[in-house]
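A quick aside before the break. I want you to see a complete sequence-to-structure record at least once, exactly as it would be stored in a machine-readable document. Don't worry about memorizing anything.
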Amino acid sequence: MKMIFTAISALAAASVAAATLCAEANKFGALTITPSTALAGGSNVTGSLDLTCPKEKGYFPTYVDYYLEVPQGNNGYEWPVLLAHNEVDASATSDTFNTALPYITYFNASYVVYAQFTYARTDEKQNTYYLIGGTSSGVNITANNS
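That is the input. The structure line, written in tokens, reads:
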């Protein structure tokens, strides 16, 4: 009897641990950008997006668009730059992109790479519609406007 209780307790603990790994804040996954510092126009960057939690939480993307953005203090001159557009296979557990930053004017500022999800839902009449959401990761870009 003690062995059964121990096995059930271990199974319950594992279930709780798995559920807590995918907190609501992680519903759009975890984005990692490499490298994330000392970037400039022409720098090669790789983005890796873990899709484990979006799959578990029901926010699995149909498409992921990766944008370079200024998160705060944007003076209105820096529009978001689309770095990559990916269609995500339903069986995927991750998504990646590789690109070079465009040769445009950058300021010494903190930027973010934002992964915008477009994910499908079905309405009451079984029509498909799309919602968006996303997650981001910070990067530092060196000014080249001198």
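Two observations worth writing down. Helices lie at 2-21, 52-57. Residues 10-19 have pLDDT under 50 and may be disordered. We'll return to this after the break.
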